[in-house]
Each structure stands twice: as C-alpha cells, then as structure tokens.
Write a structure and sequence with these properties.
The structure is a single chain. By secondary structure, this protein is an all-alpha fold. The chain has a domain of 140 residues. Helix content is 61%, strand content 0%. It contains 18 helices and no strands.
Length: 380
C-alpha cells in the first residue's frame, strides 16, 4: 500500500451477517465451562443439578445455544446454583460480564456497513477492563487473569480452549469498528467516546491492515490535539491510541504521548482517574469520558492502583512508560499510600528496572523520584 494512502474498510469475503446474530454465546459459554470445572462438576452432573438435559448444557458451553437466550429466571437459578456449589463471586461476575461481551460481539457481527452512531454499544458507556479482557479473548487467545488463575479455562477439549473467531468474522468486526471510529463525530462527547473505544478494541486485531490503520488514525488524532492542550475528549482518544500502538510494538507512542499531552494538572488527573476506573477503584459505571476530569481524585483510595502499577514495572511490558509515569503521579498525589511494607517490597523492583537501563530518560527520572519516596517512607 502506498505510504500516504488510507486503508480501506472492507468486510470479509463471503461473510454475511446472520439475522439472529445478537443471540451470541461463545464467550459466556467458555466462562460457564470454566465455572463448572472450578466447582468440580462434569457436564452430566451439573446438568442433573440444574434440571436440564446434558445436551442443553453442552449447547450453552459451546455457544450453540446462547446463554443470553435463556429466561432471566433460568439464568439466575443457574447462577445461584453455581454460587452454592462454591463458585467465587469474582467468577460469577465474569459470567455476567461475558453476556455483555457476547451482546457486543453479536451486535457487531450482525451489523451491516452502516454504523448506528447513537445506539452503538461502544457509544453508550465507558467500557471496563473485565469487559475488554473478555472481548479480546477470542482475538488474542489469552484468557482473562481471573479465569486463568482457576486453571480451568485453559484445558483443551473438543470445543477448544477458548472462544474463537473465524477469519471472516475477525475481518468483519475490524472493518465495522474502523468504520465506527471514522464516522463518529469529533465534536461531541458521545462521538469521541465511540471513536476512542472503537479505536482501542480494533487494536486487538493482529492484521497488518489494522496496524497501519491505527497508525494513520493516531497521526490524525494527534494533529487535532494541540501539544500541552487542556484536557478534551480528543485527549482520551489519543491516550487510547498510544496504548494500542504500544501493544503493536511502537516503543515511541507512549513516551511521545506523555511528553506532549500529560503536562497539565487536568491531564494528570484524567490519567489517574482513568486508571482508577480501569482497575475497579471507581465502582460506578461511567457514561462518558468526561468523568476523567470531573471526578475528584480523593474519591478513590489508590491501593489497588499502587499494587497493579508496581506489579507492571517490567521492561518487557509495552506500557512500561505510562506505568512509571502513573506510579510517579500517584505517589505525588497520594503519598500516604506508601508504608514500610509496600515501600520495602517495591524498592527492589524499581532498582532492577533502573539497572536494566531500557526505559526512556523521562521514565528514569521519574523512577528515581519514586525510589526517593520509597526510601523516605521506609524511614518514617
């Protein structure tokens, strides 16, 4: 493709949207299978406990009989039974979120070339990390951590180790999301939300066409966002775009974003608030990206964020620069988070990363400031 040409939006060859495609079940089916295995039941024994034919349970787990098609009463009976059998609440929450992920996949697979910009699922709420992990699963083949920890979601069998997408389905989803991002309004909060989230989810597609499109889109977004500008919904689009490019191997995307676009109090606040939402410190669902600057940073604790960020201080992490910057900003804003115990456990991690010498100069300066704060905390 010529250097300056724009990647075209085309659906998969031979793909046709099924009229009942909102009755999607592949993600929730695999989560249900992980839950069944976690509570130590076979398909036959669990089907007997539920009071359904084993073929019905097999259909739910395979996605052939979408779980979202059952009655609300039947779903809650299943959920309550799994809870009584010992399923952890975190896993049961994953099942609820998997239904939302299936609804999203079904909506996109059933959508034609025209994008409904008002009712699109990515225009109606700020998606969460659990939802995104489940949507990414059939693209990247990596189970969400909460499922992988059970050891039950990765076993292989006749139905595969996880939800899968056929090649034409992947192409259709990617083309649809690219169209949504390109058609969404750049002048409204809702349009920016759709643009940002479609941009981000598209990044899970591994095709070369999508990688080139992401780079083109990010360049266009950055030109619209002035360097050192105050926060705007477009800022959030560029932030997500930088993360997508980093995931694709662009080592300059995040350092450039931090240097150019995280230089004001509002943008620092937005970055921290988004982390808090992403990691579940902010429990309430958000309807627009404006929460990033409207939410008081003191409204959430930060313990979960501190633990997450210190656990991601790894030179192999493609997001390491934004992790370092966010950790530095979090400690400045909430110094009381540091105590003897977490300071002692974090110090060697920071020292190892400094010794690696692989992070940017800015990250190195921020790590040195973090190290100073950790040592001061140990002396208190």
């Amino acid at each position: 493709m010529p250097k300056n040409s724009r990647p075209t939006l085309t659906t998969g060859q031979g793909f046709s949207a099924a009229p009942d495609s909102e009755r999607e079940g592949r993600v929730s089916g695999h989560v249900l299978k992980a839950l069944r295995r976690a509570v130590g039941h076979t398909q036959e024994s669990l089907a007997e406990r539920i009071g359904v034919d084993v073929s019905t349970l097999q259909g739910w787990e395979s996605g052939r009989r979408p779980l979202m098609a059952v009655s609300t009463g039947q779903y809650f009976r299943l959920r309550h039974l799994l809870h009584r059998l010992g399923a952890a609440p975190r896993l049961l929450t994953q099942l609820d979120t998997a239904l939302e992920a299936d609804r999203f996949l079904g909506y996109v697979l059933g959508a034609g070339r025209t994008v409904d910009l008002e009712s699109h699922p990515l225009a109606t709420w700020v998606i969460t990390r659990p939802f995104t992990d489940l949507v990414a699963w059939p693209f990247i083949g990596v189970a969400p951590a909460v499922l992988a920890e059970t050891g039950s979601s990765v076993r292989r069998g006749p139905t595969g180790s996880g939800p899968e997408l056929a090649a034409d389905e992947r192409q259709h989803i990617s083309a649809h999301l690219r169209a949504a991002a390109e058609q969404a309004s750049r002048d409204t909060v809702k349009g920016s939300l759709l643009r940002r989230q479609a941009h981000y989810v598209t990044g899970f597609d591994t095709s070369a066409e999508t990688a080139e499109w992401l780079a083109v889109m990010q360049g266009a977004e950055k030109r619209r966002l002035r360097a050192a500008a105050e926060w705007s919904p477009s800022w959030a689009v560029v932030r997500s775009g930088a993360h997508s490019l980093a995931r694709k191997g662009d080592t300059e995307a995040l350092p450039e974003f931090i240097d150019a676009h995280v230089s004001t109090d509002a943008c620092e606040t937005a970055n921290l608030n988004y982390w808090a939402y992403w990691l579940g410190e902010v429990a309430d669902p958000q309807l627009a990206d404006t929460f990033m600057v409207e939410l008081d940073v003191d409204a959430w604790r930060g313990d979960r964020m501190l633990n997450h960020l210190t656990g991601k201080l790894d030179p192999a992490n493609p997001y390491v620069d934004i992790v370092v910057h966010s950790l530095w900003a979090l400690i400045i804003r909430k110094p009381g988070l540091l105590d003897d115990r977490n300071a002692a456990s974090t110090t060697p991690i920071v020292l190892r990363l400094l010794d690696e010498g692989t992070v940017s100069q800015r990250s190195r300066r921020e790590l040195e400031a973090v190290l100073y704060a950790l040592r001061m905390a140990q002396r208190r």
